Amino acid sequence: MSAVLAGRRREFVSALRRRVDAVAATGGGGGCVVVTAEAGGGKSHSLRAAAAESPVTVSWATASELSWRKPYSVVGDLLGVEVPDPLPPDADRLFLERLDRLVALGPHVFVVDDAHHADAASLATMALIADVARMLPVALIVARRPEPVREYLVRLAARPDVETVVVPPLDGMDVDVLVHERLAAWPGTRLRSALATTGGHPLSAQTMLDDLGRRELLIRDADGVDIPMGVDAASAPTLAESVEARLDPVGSGARDVLLRLAVWGGPAALEDLAALVAVPAAAVVAPVQELLEADLVAFDDHGRLEVTHDTIADAVCERTARPLRDVVHRAIADFVGESDPVARAHHLRAAGAEPGETVVAVQAAARRLETVPAVAADVLAGGAGPFGGAGVAAEATALSVERALALARSGQLAQADEVARDALSVAGDVDAIARLIRVRMFALTVRGARDEVLEMIEETLTFPLPEVSRRIITDHRSYVRLLGGAGPIPLEPYVDTVGELSLTGLVAEALRSCLTGATFAAVEYAAEASRRFMTEEASDSSEGASADLWPPFIEMYHRGPKAAAESRLEMARRQADRGTGWQGTYHQLISGSIELLRGNLADSVAIYDAAFEKVATGEEAVSSLAYGGRAMIDVMTGDLAGAEHRVQLWDDDRIGYGHLLHQFGIPQIARVRMLTAEARRSHRTAAHLAGEVWSGAMSQHCFSWAAMVAPEIVRIAIRAVDEDLVTQVAADLATLPRPLGPATTDAVRLAEAMASAEPSAVVEVASDVARRATRTEDFALIVSGWEEAAVAAAVDGRKTEAIDHARAALRTVEDAGADGWRSRILSRMRGAGVRVTTSGTRRRPDTGWDSLTPTEAQVTELVALGLSGPDIAGRLFMSPRTVQTHVSHVLGKLGLRTRVELAAAASGREPRLVR
């Protein structure tokens, strides 16, 4: 039966209930709500009322003070999955697969109470549930207190698709109902006035009622209840005082059990509570019964004992002298022993154990949590405490290093930097100092804080450092300058002998070679860096940490998009094996760029948008190449206003929470402005911008990128009749280092032919380039080849050939949904005096099976085979978030509501080949 509610609180609960009911009524995403309230503020009661008699399935989990140090414990309860011990590296798959199965069954509401106590791994998984809740008939409701502040909860609440609400205080009507629920009578005037002093705090109001009842000051009259005249409401006890009063009558045996339970920190088995004092479980039956009757404890669904409210545990610990609590903590640490190193470390630290013993225990706990660095970082927080002594200080610093690394590995970059910075202020060991500096460099680099990193490096290099650390830091300086576009890219190698480079230096040299046109060498260096990464004995994860990130990027400039996609699959396999999950967003952004180059625009959008949604609430830098790539798709599809809006956001620095990274100094954003101006037929403006883009790329020594965009620069110059720019591009192309990589050779051939202004030569070269680009899946080069061949043939008077080439270009762009490019091709053909009808071209429909992109079709076939979202993500080497985006798009195109319906509909169709 639903709870009876009234007033302001009723309105609040009704709003939550409408969200729950809408999941079943509309079949759409119920979204995510983060509910905040102080202790005793009524959040749990509100959640129960909102979920009561729900027409959809509701799964519920409540975190306890134990939860934060037990990886996946909360999400395991929420999804009904037993957490494996030990945790495998891919433990999250178990929970994502279960989530996938639950969602496939139909509308579902997930409720997490007291999420401020939840472990970091569970909190990270909640973000994935929130992704699902945006698209499918699922709702996620998360309740928390303002303190303690949890990083992943802050990120969840900061998402634009997440609603954050504060539980309102009880108003007069709500208080009346509360009194009626507890006393089966309505409050009189004096009782109302007394309860008004609680400020609408539910637990305080209940506490006052309990106190008045114990003092026999509640006077009943028919269906009403009041207090005598002259009772001073201000004399009523505080919440803490009331809890203390409830504890006073409890016998010593029951108080002892309650203390053990409070210090335990969460639900505990009776056998364990008894074993702490070496007595049989039967010996605690009577004391526990006394606690049950006093409503101080209760049994949870698993038969474990727990306090009925956190304030009770707080009061018990507060009234117990610290040395006595320490004894209980020590007893628990000894009881759990090596079977639970995380709990042992926590209780030893709380017991004030010897520093050396505590450090060893914390290190053992961190090793147990190696696969869940976010939880390890929480366990490492506090280290060995503020202990004196040089040896202990060194051990405490070592723990700080490990915590900083764990924070960095889990994407908590600002905290990683803060921990490392604080540890540096007290560290005395030279090697520890070097490691902490490298952690700071790593965190700041990922955040895109180029200038801060370079300043820190210059200062650090003035100190005496171990030679290995000096070499790594020096090479990191080269990497940061290159990545952040701090000056022209060096034309000469960083060192005479590549073997002298650290792993970070080898990565930097691979990128330098790639960007300056030496792509053959770049591929070799990148392969060697990837091979060396995680095979050498490295002191921390910052050394060469991006080695697996760059091979696909380099292949885009060497052998083209198809080879880059193949390399990306290989790197994805290594990412899973090597525990470099922090790179997931960057791998996604590179994947989005690869799919853009292949012309899979819808898939590219899905990948880009999923990655940028994560970046928007994270701390990673926003890359200009990826962000510009997303804006490029707007231009290609004809959404010029969208492209201009994205560029404006970039100019105003209103993207994400980190820095904007002008990657390698490549003028990608300026390129978007240039192409937008061309699409708006502002040809002189476009040519002016093209000149800036070209000169910027050449002066930055971004020769490979310049070679790839050369055809569009020449095209814009020709359309604006800017002969000087055409001449300049042709001259610069002749100076590019040879041999060119396969991916850039044909782009340069096409641009040089266009600059020659010989129509017959352009037709021959351009059509050959288009055919060759088909093999490398270079969409832009395919289109440019057929487009330039068509225009040149028209100018040369070869109308039939011009129409054939134009239709080849149109088929390519229409199949990709590039309406903006379609308009450009038709406009140029009309300008050349040839009208091209599109009856011979085909266009992917907006709905139905034929509307699915190749990736969407693959995802659909795998759904039909019964694979879960994580299985599909693993098979196709993409993130679960991206898989869910594809599933949502497919459901929308096919007019379906659930994965079950999709699987049923797809199972009867002849499948395409799934690679």
Report on this structure.
It is a single chain. Helix 37 runs antiparallel to helix 38. Among the domains are: about 160 residues, P-loop containing nucleotide triphosphate hydrolases (Rossmann fold); about 60 residues; about 160 residues, Arc Repressor Mutant, subunit A (Orthogonal Bundle); about 160 residues, Tetratricopeptide repeat domain (Serine Threonine Protein Phosphatase 5, Tetratricopeptide repeat); about 60 residues, Orthogonal Bundle (Arc Repressor Mutant, subunit A). The protein has 44 helices and twelve strands. The strands form four sheets. It has a five-stranded parallel beta sheet with strand order 2-3-4-1-5, sandwiched between helices. GO terms for molecular function: adenylate cyclase activity; ATP binding; ATP hydrolysis activity; DNA binding.
Please write the CATH class name of the domain at 247-411: Mainly Alpha
Mean of pLDDT: 87
SS class: mainly alpha
Strand content: 5-15%
Q: Figure out the total of helices.
A: 44
Instruction: Give the termini distance in whole angstroms.
Output: 52 Å
CATH topology term of the domain at 247-411: Arc Repressor Mutant, subunit A
Q: What gyration radius follows from the Cα positions, in whole Å?
A: 32 Å
Characterize the overall form: globular
